[in-house]
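Here is one chain, start to finish.
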Amino acid sequence: GEIPVTHPELKFRASLPAGPENARFRVAIDSLGAVRYSFLEQSSGDAALDQQARQSLALCRFAFPEKPASDEGMHWASATFEFGTDLTMPPSAAERAP
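Its structure:
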C-alpha cells in the first residue's frame, strides 16, 4: 500500500518541450522515514527533470504505520512522480521570439 509522505512544495522545471513521462524511482527508506538511496527505474525522458525529482525525494519524509523490525533495516519502495500542475514547461520558440 501507499506510505504517507510529507514533502516541501514541489516545483519542477522541464528542459524539453514535450510533456514528460512519469519518473519512477526505487527508494530505500530508513527507520526515521528518510530516503537513504534512490535509483532511477524509469526516466521521465528529461534528464534534468529526473535529477530534480531525485533531489526532491531526498527532502521527503515517509511515515510508516509501524516501525521496521530493526533500526538498521531499510524499507524498499517505489516512488513515482506524475508531473502535472507542479511542472513549468520551457517557453516555445514562438514565445521566445522578441
